[in-house]
Amino acid sequence: MERMLATPADAEIVLRLYELRTEAVMRQARAWITGEFWPTTVEEFFAVASNPADPHNAWLRQVLTYWEMAAAMVLHGAVSAELFVDCNAEGFFLLAKFAPILEGIREKNPGFLIKTAELVNRFSAASQRYEAVLKNVEARRKSPPAGQEVHS
User: I need a surface site. Which of 3, 46, 75, 99 has the fewest CB within 10 A?
Assistant: First the structure.
């Protein structure tokens, strides 16, 4: 990735993305998907993702589409990749979190986290960030925080 200085417009976009993440429902959705939802099988994932009656279905869709939208902005050149990667890790966390079941999810939903994966494949800074996050997620999966079980 060629190193370029971010523009003030890039900074505005990154700040706006941050602001959107602080909205009350989005915070709840993010807290659930990052802290509580740890499916170990494709079936556990789709029990929520394919079930509009599940109370967490909307949260799952909200968070995943948010990060895919943000990744698409980078891929289409609307925001500096380096600035985006420096300021965001959650999209990479989600890709790492679902990595063990990603292939199975994509059998039913080929577009699942595809923009985030493309970001990782296209930009070395994103790849490096992903690899660091992946190590942390793997360690967390092996030993959940005290008082927290890894479950769906």
Answer: 3
